[in-house]
Amino acid sequence: MRIVVLREREPGETRVGLVPDAVKKLVAVKAEVAVENGAGSAAFFTDAEYSAVGAQLSPDRDELLRSAELLVCVSRPPAEDTAKLPRGSVVVGFLRPLDEPKKLEPAIDRGLTAFAMELIPRSTRAQTMDALSSMATIAGYKAALMAADRLPRMFPLLMTAAGTVPPARVLVLGAGVAGLQAIATARRLGAMVKGFDVRSAAGEQVRSLGASFIEPDLGGEQGEGTGGYARELTDEVMDRLRNQIAQNAGTADVIITTAQVPGRRAPLLITENALRNMRPGSVVIDLAASTGGNCAVCKPGQETVAGQVTILAPLNLPATMPTHASQLYSNNVLAFLRLLIKDGEAHIDLNDDVVGPTCVTHNGNVVNQRVASALGLVAAKG
Ligand code: NAD
After folding, report:
1. Residues 6 or more apart from 357 whose CB is under 8 A from it?
2. What is the mean pLDDT of the chain?
3. Contact at 8 Å (CB) between 49 and 110?
4. CA atoms of 213 and 217, how far apart (whole Å)
5. Cβ-based neighbours of 188, under 8 Å, separated by 6 or more
6. What separation in angstroms does the CA of 166 have from each of 156, 158, 372?
7. Which of 124, 231, 260, 265 to mutate to test ligand 1, by most ligand atoms within 8 A of the CB atom?
8. I want to staple 225 with a disulfide (CB 3.0 to 4.6 A). Which of 61, 124, 231, 307 is the partner?
């Protein structure tokens, strides 16, 4: 099995699919790993470190693509790279299958077997492979740091000879992996934190981090769906929630939003009215920017000022911490590859309860039902 790792091409992408430590473990189980020169440099992993653990370094991207049996990437490879992969080869990476299904067409045309790391099931068995959680942890941490950096006030309570500085008040909307990490980080910086989620079960986790929980006003409806995820709510309930958030916005210096729904636009949580309630100088960090944003005033990748409130809508925050983001992602990928490789050879079992749900296309056939529907197809049997 020849595994190939390339330098990422997506603008702003600094992560690498496999770090040297993971390469070493793959080489130890008889896999051959070829790495493009400089693939890890933006994440501060040198070519010398890859060579030292047995990777074959090459400057020839085209040759690497043509010889790949399995390509490990972070972002979906560009169509011109996909076209050079051998028919029947395997791709593993963040492929955005539900958000951008059309962009999978080059992989389908090329007859590839593609695994989307976003689709790793949220099961106990797959925890070590849960790349979405790894990246959400980094995004939540960085969001709290960005807020602390941009707020014209300090986060902690300070009692000094020159007077007392009250702690900043931070509201985190969505208490999934990113939200909980944002809460924990803001607490460590000394802020007073409130968490909000439509899943009442999130309350206990929020409180365990020393924050308070705002019980959602769901008008008697259930906010919890299947598998621990939020349920899709009616317009009427969403209006109630937006009103509740607008009221709480008046007492927040910072709002960090993290609510996303795979394959759909992010729910609108902060209205222009809520922004008007915020104090001058307040900051909103919208982590759902890549799927439209949770804030009514959100320009993905840009900074906007509404009244005297600054709204940041960062894209790909994990890429701003590439060393740890690559290390965690690489560990997730390595754990997944252990399911695909036996004795150094590919062994793809779509009946496996992690491998099957993660597979989007198998030998060019779309095998994931949701992706097939988004493309107007019927899913093939794996
Ligand atoms: P996510 O990125 O899908 O969403 C972030 C949070 O936003 C979620 O907590 C969600 O309930 C909340 N949300 C959605 N719509 C909302 C709205 N309108 N208003 C307010 N909040 C809203 O979440 P995630 O981080 O991927 O986690 C989703 C679930 O999966 C959680 O229950 C989490 O504990 C669980 N999880 C389980 C595992 C595992 O078992 N291995 C791993 C990771 C996450």
Report:
1. 119, 120, 121, 368
2. 95
3. no
4. 12
5. none
6. 7, 7, 53
7. 260
8. 231
Which residues are part of the catalytic machinery? 122, 127, 130, 133, 229
129 lines ligand 1 (CB under 6 A): no
3-class secondary-structure state, position 175: coil
Report the residue among 98, 198, 240, 244 best suited for mutation to probe ligand 1: largest number of ligand atoms under 8 A from its CB: 198
The pLDDT, as a whole number, for residue 382 is 63
Residue 68: predicted pLDDT: 98
Q: How far is the centre of ligand 1, averaged over its atoms, from the C-alpha of 17 (Å)?
A: 25
Distance 109 CA to ligand 1 centre (A): 34
Q: Which two tokens stand for residue 291?
A: 């799927």
Query: What ligand 1 atom has the least distance to the C-alpha of 202?
Result: 9
Regions of the chain where pLDDT drops below 50: none
The residue among 71, 82, 177 whose CA lies nearest residue 132 is 177
Q: Ligand 1 mean position to 107 CA, how many Å?
A: 29
Q: E strands, 258-376, where? A: 283-286, 303-306, 309-312, 341-342, 345-346, 359-362, 365-366
| 78 φ, ψ (degrees, to nearest 5) | -65, 155
Q: How far apart are CA 216 and CA 85, in angstroms?
A: 49
Quick one: 376 exposed, middle or buried, by C-beta within 10 A (0-12, 13-18, 19+)? exposed
DSSP 8-state secondary structure symbol assigned to residue 338 = H
Centroid of ligand 1 to alpha carbon of 230 (angstroms): 7
Q: What six digits make up the tokens of 177?
A: 């992996």
Q: Do 143 and 287 form a contact (C-beta atoms < 8 A)?
A: yes
Ligand 1: which of 123, 229, 270 to mutate, most ligand atoms within 8 Å of CB? 229
| DSSP letters for 210-274 | T-EEE----TT---B-GGGPBPP--HHHHHHHHHHHHHHHTT-SEEEE----TTSPPPP-B-HHH
**Between helices 322-340 and 20-28, what is the axis angle to 10°?**
20
